[in-house]
Design a protein that fits this description.
The structure is a homodimer of 307-residue chains. The first copy, chain A, has 307 residues and is α+β, with helices and mostly antiparallel strands. The first copy, chain A, has 9 helices and 12 strands. The first copy, chain A, has one domain: 4-Layer Sandwich (Glutamine Phosphoribosylpyrophosphate, subunit 1, domain 1). In chain A, 35% of the residues lie in helices and 24% in strands. In chain A, the strands form 2 sheets. An 8-stranded mixed beta sheet of chain A has the order 4-3-2-6-5-1-11-12. Chain A has a 4-stranded antiparallel beta sheet with strand order 7-8-9-10. In chain A, helix 1 runs antiparallel to helix 2, helix 2 runs antiparallel to helix 3 and helix 8 crosses helix 9. The interface between A and B is large, with 44 and 44 residues.
Chain lengths: 307, 307
Amino acid sequence: MNQAPFSIAIHGGAGTILRTNMTPEKEHAYNSALDQALKAGIAVLTEAGTALDAVTAAVTSLENCPLFNAGRGSVFTHDGSHEMDASIMTGHNLESGSVAGVTGVRNPVLLARAVMEKSEHALLASRGAEAFARAMQLPFEDSAYFHNDLRHSQWQEALRDDKIVLDHTEKKFGTVGAVARDIHGNLAASTSTGGMTNKKWGRIGDSPIIGAGTYANNATCAISCTGHGEYFIQSVVAYDISCLMEYKGLTLADACHEVVRKKLVQRGGEGGLIAVDHAGNVCLPFNSEGMYRAWYEAGQQHVAIYR
Amino acid sequence: MNQAPFSIAIHGGAGTILRTNMTPEKEHAYNSALDQALKAGIAVLTEAGTALDAVTAAVTSLENCPLFNAGRGSVFTHDGSHEMDASIMTGHNLESGSVAGVTGVRNPVLLARAVMEKSEHALLASRGAEAFARAMQLPFEDSAYFHNDLRHSQWQEALRDDKIVLDHTEKKFGTVGAVARDIHGNLAASTSTGGMTNKKWGRIGDSPIIGAGTYANNATCAISCTGHGEYFIQSVVAYDISCLMEYKGLTLADACHEVVRKKLVQRGGEGGLIAVDHAGNVCLPFNSEGMYRAWYEAGQQHVAIYR
């Protein structure tokens, strides 16, 4: 068996709770949830599992946790429903699957993976994507599963103010994601989100867009983004980092700095990302006050929220 | 007034009618439609108009022509409706607008432009995007407007065979697009499509995806793609060409060759694209048998279908 190291990083969104609003209880709850999701990924990688299975396990864990804006914890749209987006990509053959604007699906990451593995398509949306999920016999949940008093009051507040907000009260860009390198040298990335509170008009952000919110290529890196999605789409953030490595010879750290701390800042694009390169190096840059994150690199495990 | 040259290129899809099936009458009809769309763009640029207005005019003309799979000529989905995608991007500030899976909107390119100019979002989908179109008072058409006997028989045939096809009978990837450089040095790109005949599950291709089917950046180039969308999404084709120019120093022609004739061919991704660079050079590479195309460069006008 190849004894090369494995690495994994996860995020639960950038922006985060302002430090002044954080309590020890909340911080403990977030850290525990991040730790649990990271361990779900590590468990796969320890058993010589694939990066693809590891990011699937980690994102599923984050989707099942009501603390994060994805899956169960998704925010409310303008009409009181939940519209979720997700994507997944595997770096050894550049295949990907994405879904956008799906309602009722318990784990959008599993639907994205089914799109990749069991359809001829790369991106399915809305009612059509839900029909595909039913054909794949993926679990659905009713609105009670997705109900959350905090999200509901955020929505009511946004409705009153007629504001569309990226996870309103906590000023957090609600997204989850994972990137990994397995012992076989394969990379994978996945991102999942419940979008913006009070969103209208079927808005889709960068999370389901390959090249913007998610990208993986064994030759360079695997990336999952979180932030103000429109800027991440127009800056093609995830693929930009890969291109800076492949075409300009930058290290992962230098490419991340160039894109997140310079180019995005110049455009006013707030957010961050998690990245792992072909050698297993991890980088977690953000230009917001914080980013819920955890990672395992060179045998060491870390969890953090603020800078 | 700046007397720098302007350039524009348009396409009506790659793959095209096999040469053996082409008649002089059909060829004349396609050439006339391409000529008309090109002239709509040239008219804007001659009057010192913007690249953004020029690509809008050209794509609107192509959408209004029933010969091409976009707007009026869109193919039928599995359930007998028309689901259209479109995008537009302007290279001077990297702003963009896209719509996916919209039904009944007469000109999806105008809706994409409204998303760019009058919403805070980059991508709107499905019923939400249609609601936004109504709020913007954009024209809608009933199903009779989109009906076309050829498209209808293609759909019936696909239904019988249970096949999802990229513009079935004519083996053509049905998409339209335009790229332009105006006399002010600004670039713009736009792409619009009616998708795949008999498509199910809300499939979205590369046309509305910034970085995949459409990209524009004054520092490098403007790109509009046509082809097997899944490969174009996973290869981030449009932004790849921009990155090869910006980070590796390739010319537009060399970058196009690398991506369309080498990388896409290696992956089995059939199709092509149109491109214009910051200096007004035009490139129209494809790896399929043909691509409906027309362009104006250095004062000369051209129309072509095959190699």
